[in-house]
Design goal:
heterodimer, A: mainly alpha, Helix Hairpins, Four Helix Bundle (Hemerythrin (Met), subunit A), 2 domains, 9 helices, globular, B: mainly alpha, Cytochrome C Oxidase, Chain A, Cyt_c_oxase_su1_dom (chain B), respiratory chain (chain B)
């Protein structure tokens, strides 16, 4: 390699982005068609969606392998490392704003939409004319059109899940400090423990959903309470799933002897992501379950 | 390093990746200039596509009554015209300019994350393929306006809304990745000595734009997701019967939508701030106040969203809050216009095509700003809301604002991109045809709106007929004028007078220190900035 690469590594042509573009196209077109076909006989959309996911997985695997190989070959300068770190931070910021939209919907519904339907502010006539029997309470267990459901208590599974996830953030932090002190065995143990806690969280989350659907009658169609509950916890669960996969990949790389005390961007990124997902859960726990 | 030959970029192959040939060059490229060109061409194709839809709209409105298209198809045209112009024409054009110019302006070898750069571009054509394909499906494409208000987009929308939702998701992913790339490049890749307050204003404005993009595109993703679940999965975010609220849709949408408006104008400010000093042969007046004004506009953009919904029934306090915050934006914007005018004051000005477009921008964008102030006044807005006055307002800021600045940028940097001077004669033809027709097109819309003609309607009362006919003629003329631009660009790429490194006497910036056309890799070793 020429001296230029020490300044800043500009990669050669790469096929991964265009493969990723095709994958994303298949996912979007497949998902769109699948959703449209839910109420019809046709069902090819689902297959396109699955094909798209397969292409994206292939792309992620190949792209990351290229990046890891380049990194292990010493092509990346400290400046490159900063680019990656800053890129990851801004990505997490975009995720915060994504959750912000759903938290915004939750707050709006609780503070504005539901009270107004109940006649608050200057909406006495709205209440009288539309649904005079409607009572504005939160959690909204009876919607204006009379759909009934139950509220998810915060004790029990949600509390256990909170403890699991908080603990996992601590164990991941220990893994990180072990890495920085070049203590490889504790690193492996703490990281593996974090993954186990993540999986345990997901299992309990599935359990909670099944309980909500089958015993409480709390579903996606239960009005604004169920909507915000399932979309917030659902997107959070998707992020925990992704984070867990992320951590598993990190563990495999640790087992292969990757990462040094001062160069471990991927580990740093995985750890940031996990802590971010943890903070989202804390907000969820407070605003969706407890309050 | 190497000597650079002007004729072909491919000669510059001391590196293991010069400019390869054929289609694979474009599919696999990681080069910021290739990707910039892809963005710009894509944006121009979308501009013509969206423009063709505008022609359908204007043809239908040439006379009162229903002549050419069904009302439902008319609605699809207004909707897709808006979506394409916002997400397909203006935003990718700015991203293309950012790709081409930012690395050259800050002395960087390329964008910070070149492969992701390729990905952010190539997902866009797919997104628009999905969106456009929905027009040909049973039930038709999106017909609820580009703002897709619930319940139009939920209860009353065609099945293809699912495809609309996912194509918007891809556009969002593309914008977010592009914005991350821009921010990281600017923060991390500046040449030694290129301190913050030496950055060209185009770089500054794009930095702030990129921040806005990352902040609000995810909110748009949230909004379309809720539309999807409301329509297909039985949720009731925007349905009062389930405890939701259709007005909540508007709050979430405009929380995205208003910063989005500034995403489409802040880079214009950067372009104009480069061109006005160059052709006035003076330094930009009040550089630092320009930076602070841009930042203020960005911050304020998060506090004004509900001025789009004064008539939806908000508490009076909220109406007043959003009214005053909106008016506050006139202050930093006024600072900018003042600075541009002060830059020209006693400058030795010449009027090449980029300068003409920049001057037209200042005058016509200011008209759009003033009609914006009229709309900001809550009680007055009750009268103007959803009329052609609003259409006139946002076309003045987006067409004679954003699009004119993009045209100005294209003329200004074409010599650097292609190595040839464009035809000044054709450029002037393009300018004068555009500037006259665009005013015939949009100015009378103010009168239509004040007289009470509602927007997004395929038919209208007989008293609006004359003005609508004038508007339509202006529209066709403006649409045709853009073909001159296409001719100018193709002619300029194919040949013409050789461009010197710095074709404009008063131009400043690192991009003019490298040869024209800019070599495939411009700053492989960073320049020293004094």
């Amino acid at each position: 390699m020429t001296t230029k690469h020490e300044a800043y590594y500009v990669p050669a042509q790469s096929a991964w982005p265009i493969i990723g573009a095709i994958g994303l196209f298949l996912i979007a077109f497949g998902a769109g068609s699948y959703v449209q076909q839910l109420s019809t006989e046709e069902s090819y959309g689902g297959y396109i969606l699955i094909a798209g996911i397969a292409v994206i997985l292939f792309m992620i695997f190949g792209w990351f392998k290229t990046v890891i190989d380049e990194s292990m070959a010493g092509l990346y300068s400290a400046q490159m490392d900063r680019s990656f770190r800053q890129g990851m931070s801004w990505f997490i910021f975009s995720e915060i704003m994504f959750f912000g939209a759903f938290f915004g919907a939750l707050f709006y519904a609780r503070m504005v939409a539901v009270p107004w339907l109940g006649g608050a502010s200057n909406n006495a006539m709205t209440h009288e004319v539309l649904w005079p029997a409607f009572e504005a309470i939160w959690p909204l267990v009876t919607t204006p059109d009379g759909t009934k459901t139950e509220a998810m208590p915060w004790t029990g599974l949600p509390l256990i899940n909170t403890i699991l996830l908080l603990t996992s953030s601590v164990t991941l932090h220990f893994a990180h400090t072990s890495l920085e002190k070049a203590k490889r065995t504790p690193l492996k143990i703490w990281l593996a423990l974090t993954i186990l806690l993540g999986i345990a969280f997901l299992v309990l989350q599935v359990e909670e959903y099944s309980h909500a659907y089958h015993e409480m009658g709390l579903t996606l169609e239960s009005g604004i309470y169920g909507n915000t509950f399932f979309l917030l916890t659902g997107f959070h669960g998707m992020h925990v799933t992704l984070g867990t996969v992320f951590l598993i990949v990190l563990l495999l790389r640790v087992l292969k002897g990757h990462f040094t005390t001062d160069k471990h961007f991927a580990f740093q990124a995985g750890s940031w992501y996990w802590h971010f997902v943890d903070v989202v859960w804390l907000c969820l726990f407070v605003f969706v379950y407890v309050l | 390093m190497s000597t650079t030959t002007h004729d072909t970029a491919a000669v510059h192959d001391d590196h293991h990746h010069g400019a390869p040939k054929g289609i694979m060059r474009w599919l696999l490229t990681t080069n910021h200039k290739d990707i910039g060109s892809l963005y710009l061409w894509f944006s121009f194709i979308m501009f013509l596509t969206g423009g063709a839809m505008a022609m359908v709209i204007r043809a239908e409105l040439f006379q009162p009554g229903l002549q050419l298209v069904e009302p439902n198809f008319f609605n699809q045209m207004t909707t897709v015209h808006g979506l394409i112009m916002v997400f397909g024409a203006v935003m990718p054009a700015f991203t293309g300019l950012a790709n081409w110019l930012i690395p050259m302006m800050i002395g960087a070898p390329d964008m910070a994350l070149p492969r992701m750069n390729n990905w952010s571009f190539w997902i866009l054509p797919f997104a628009f393929a999905i969106l456009l394909s929905s027009l040909f499906m049973e039930g038709g494409g999106p017909n609820f306006g580009w703002t897709f208000y619930a319940p139009l987009s939920t209860t009353y929308s065609p099945d293809s809304t699912a495809l609309f939702v996912f194509s918007v998701h891809i556009m969002g992913i593309s914008s977010i990745m592009g914005a991350i790339n821009v921010i990281v490049t600017i923060v991390n890749m500046r040449a030694p000595g290129m301190t913050w307050m030496k950055l060209p204003l185009f770089v500054w404005t794009w930095l702030i734009t990129a921040f806005l993009l990352i902040a609000v595109m995810p909110v748009l993703a949230g909004a379309v997701t809720m539309v999807l679940t409301d329509k297909f999965f039985g949720t009731s975010f925007f349905d009062a019967a389930g405890g939701g609220d259709p007005v909540m849709f508007q709050h979430i949408f405009w929380f995205f939508g208003h910063p989005e408006v500034y995403i489409m104008i802040l880079p214009s400010f950067g372009i104009i701030s480069a061109i006005i000093p160059a052709f006035s042969r003076k330094k930009l007046f009040g550089y630092s106040s320009m930076v602070y004004a841009t930042a203020s506009i960005a911050i304020l953009s998060f506090l004004v969203w509900a001025h789009h919904m004064f008539t939806t029934g908000m508490p009076v306090f909220a109406e007043l809050f959003f009214m005053y915050c909106t008016m506050l934006i006139a202050v930093p914007t006024g600072v900018k216009v003042f600075n541009w005018v002060a830059t020209m004051w006693r400058g030795s000005m010449t009027f090449e095509t980029p300068m003409l477009f920049a001057l037209a921008f200042i005058i016509l964008f200011t008209i759009g700003g003033f009609s914006g102030l009229m709309l900001a006044i809550t009680p007055a807005d009750f009268q103007y809301h959803d009329t052609y006055f609003v259409v006139a307002h946002f076309h003045y800021v987006l067409v004679t604002g954003a699009v004119f600045s993009i045209m100005a940028a294209a003329y200004y940097w074409l010599p650097k991109w292609t190595g040839h001077m464009y035809s000044e004669t054709l450029g002037k033809w393009h300018f004068w045809c555009s500037v006259i027709s665009v005013n015939v097109l949009f100015f009378p819309m103010h009168f239509l709106g004040l007289a009470g003609m509602p927007r997004r309607i395929p038919d209208y009362a007989i008293q609006f007929a004359d003005i609508n006919q004038i508007v339509s003629i202006g529209g066709f003329a403006f649409g045709l004028s853009q073909l001159i631009f296409l001719a100018v660009v193709i002619k300029c790429i194919k040949g013409g007078e050789k461009a010197p490194d710095k074709p404009w006497e008063g131009a400043e910036g690192l991009e003019w220190t490298i040869p024209s056309p800019a070599p495939y890799h411009s700053f492989t070793t960073p320049p020293e900035v004094k």
